[in-house]
Amino acid sequence: MQENYGLFMSIDREPANGVITWFEYHKHFLLKNGIQEDYVDGHNEHHEDLKRSIKEIIARDKASWFEAARTDPDSLTLDEFLAFRHPESSHTTILALVDELLDKLDRDGDEILTEEEFARLQVGEGGEGLLSQGEFERREIFRLMLDADGDGKADRKELLMYIDPKNPRHAREEAETLVTLADTDHDGKLSLSEVLSKMDLFLGSKMVDTAKSFHDEF
């Protein structure tokens, strides 16, 4: 977090007014990626001379920028910049994920999840079917990780704690998955050769890209 604050202050220069414009951030990004300053100062927005990989990052950044910009589409405040850099940790994003979870699982619309609602996933339009696969595991998750006060229900506060990327459960579950998939000799440990042989698996892990963790789960 301190690093992002320092980055914000270093980019906010033209002028230094407490907000970062897309122009300021985009210039910083290009210079950081080794683009010559004369190109940065005089390029057009189509970037014909840049590598495709750089242009794809710019396109993703621009989409994320407009999602984070709540007050002005052309600039970000410090809070908005932190949400732009780490959308998975944004309080606004976490609240939206709680709403999404309730929308999917809260069948009676009371904004509280029961163990039954969490364990038995609804499928199909109108909720005509229920998916019971993995129901036992989901009941265990509800009791051990979600229902903090043990009353058999999960309110918004408990859902926020459960979804929060800082919750240790995310790292624990992902570590167990990585070991299961990469441990080819089934000794319960990962050797360097096993990790290197599954490099794409580890680079695509939620532990590297935490923003995808919630959507992969439900």
SSE layout and pairing:
Elements: H1 2-11, E1 20-21, H2 22-32, H3 37-42, H4 52-68, E2 75-76, H5 78-85, H6 91-105, E3 113-114, H7 115-119, E4 121-123, E5 129-131, H8 135-146, E6 153-154, H9 156-163, H10 168-182, H11 192-197, H12 199-203, H13 213-217
Antiparallel strand pairs: 1-2, 3-6, 4-5
Helix pairs in contact: 4-5, 6-9
Question: Which short descriptors sum up this protein?
Answer:
single chain; 218 residues; mainly alpha; Recoverin, domain 1; 3 domains; two-stranded antiparallel ribbon; two-stranded antiparallel sheet; 13 helices; 56% helix
Describe this structure in words.
With 218 residues, this protein is mostly helical. It has three domains: 1-85; 91-163, Recoverin, domain 1 (Orthogonal Bundle), CATH 1.10.238; 168-204, no CATH class. Helices cover 56% and strands 6% of the residues. The strands form three sheets. A two-stranded antiparallel ribbon has the order 1-2. Residues 125-131 have low confidence and may be disordered. It comes from Clastoptera arizonana. One of its GO terms (molecular function) is calcium ion binding.
